[in-house]
Amino acid sequence: MRARVLVIAGSDSSGGAGLEADQRVLTAHGVYSLTATTGLTAQNTLGVHDIHVVPSKFVRKQIDAALDDVGADVVKLGMLSSKETVDEVAVALREHKVPTVVLDPVMVSTSGSQLLPTDAVNDLRTQLLPLTTVLTPNIPEAKLLLETSGETPIEPQNVDDMTRIAKQLQTLGPKNVLLKGGHLPLSETVVRAQSEPKDKDKDEPKRVVVDVLYRETGDVVLFETDFLTSKNTHGTGCSLASAIAANLALGKDLEDAVRSAVRYVEAGIKTSVDLGKGNGPINHFHSMYSLPFAPGRFIEYVLNRPDIKPVWKEFTEHDFVEGLGDGTLPLERFKEYLIQDYLYLTHFARSNALAAYKAQNMESIAASAKIVMHINTEMALHINYCASFGLTKEEMEQTPEKQACTAYSRYILDIGQSQDWLALQVALAPCLIGYGMIAKRLYEKYKHSDTSKNRYWNWVLNYVADDYVQAVKTGSELLEKHMPTVSPARMEELVGIFREATKLEIAFWDMGLTGR
């Protein structure tokens, strides 16, 4: 079953925090998100302009609707808006016997706006903390929770002080406490920093941020992050708690869940871009890669890319090709092309045999072998076809390769030797797929004309024949199966190989027209 997280929180109209950020985080982690909206905010990167509190009874209906149907592995709590909402949420969590609760006690926004009324803080402490698996306060929130419990919190100066605060919070009911250290940048000596990182000549500049995890076992785990000088920290608390919830829902243990979440937010800050005039959002999708094509649509995708489409058009609609279709290509040009094509086919067969050698499984070996067998059949047809133009096998084999033939054939062999199986398949694809597309287009365009007068029509028929269509299908299926597994960087490298091979095909047609 897919991991599920129910988020009970407020909506952020600027999209950087609240439910909007939560859903991005959960999506980036591959977790299904459900929501119960507690409040609507009118806000941007500069601050909160207004809050509309959703009636607590309606919040409860949202929770019940989600948990009665889809269910949730983890519930993440954010801005709860009112005392009534806090109470309703507490009752709902008990009645639904929610196994894991991550509570981000949202009380004050990054810009300093109050998000939770004072009368709700007490109920949050008494009603929700005992139900909480992981509490994730920042230092001001931690101090506020302690103050409402009658304790006088210390002003932390170092990690030991933070640990004391986390331990105090744990006595209020939550099983585990992650005290976030963003409000207490530390120096290299791990004490409260006194200056910015750029002030190298001053004492104790800001260097690190430490988050303290105090576990129900009494163990303490520290998570250290470089202090980042970025204004784009809007929604970091929401994002961190949601990332922890996602990791717990995915089955990670608590320490791994928190560590992964801390690193996720760190990367989100580092890769953020400036949006708005104030505290901008982090980048929630920094480590998420979506395929640029639907499954089974790689070839369609690559042929329609802006960097491939004009090159592919030049290849498949070349003047040499048009001369074949309408029969106007000079005979001597075609005969010279046939010889070079025969020489190329030998290297094409060698390349596919190399692909079979490099394949990692029997299915791919067999597919490459089938293509080699087709080339063998094509070669026999080619020899007979050439004979109809007065060209013998011996004559063709004694003819020197022209530069375009050598350049193209050695390119695919070099790719086969120096790179992996998939790169070789991509290098071979323009020839395999392109000839099939060209012949199909020419056949549809000229099949109703008097083809008996076109000496080159059999060339077209050869590449629309069933055996060649099957070879194209086999080669295409290999690409479609394996391309979704590569990284974005590798994808671009392989598209570059496809583009270069297509350009070499164009050079082959140019040679056919000019004889050079």
Low-confidence stretches: none
How far is the first residue's CA from the last residue's CA? 63 Å
Beta-strand fraction estimate:
5-15%
Spatial order of the strands forming the largest sheet: 3-2-1-4-5-6-7-8-9
Q: Quick one: overall form?
A: elongated
Q: Class of the largest domain in CATH? A: Alpha Beta
Gyration radius, to the nearest Å? 33 Å
Number of domains: 2
Which class do the helix and strand fractions yield?
alpha/beta
Q: Count every helix, treating DSSP H or I runs of 4 or more residues as helices.
A: 19
Q: Can you write the helix and strand succession as a string? A: EHEEHEHEHEHHEEEHHHHHHHHHHHHH
Can you count the beta strands? 9
Q: CATH fold name of the largest domain, please?
A: UDP-N-acetylmuramoyl-L-alanine:D-glutamate ligase
Helix content: 40-55%
Please give the CATH architecture of the largest domain.
Answer: 3-Layer(aba) Sandwich
Reported for the largest beta sheet, the result is: 9 strands, mixed
Per CATH, the superfamily of the largest domain is Ribokinase
Mean pLDDT over the residues: 87
Question: Could you characterize what this model shows?
Answer:
With 516 residues, this protein is of the alpha/beta class. The chain has two domains: 4-182 and 228-270, Ribokinase (UDP-N-acetylmuramoyl-L-alanine:D-glutamate ligase, 3-Layer(aba) Sandwich); 298-514, Heme Oxygenase, Chain A (Up-down Bundle), CATH 1.20.910.10. Helices cover 54% and strands 11% of the residues. The protein is built from 19 helices and nine strands. The protein has helices spanning 18-28, 56-69, 83-96, 118-128, 139-148, 159-170, 236-249, 254-270, 298-303, 309-316, 319-326, 331-358, 362-387, 393-398, 403-418, 421-446, 457-464, 466-482, 488-514, and strands at residues 4-12, 32-44, 47-53, 74-77, 101-103, 134-135, 176-179, 208-214, 220-226. A nine-stranded mixed β-sheet has the order 3-2-1-4-5-6-7-8-9. The protein is elongated, with a radius of gyration of 33 Å. The model has no long low-confidence stretch (mean pLDDT 87).
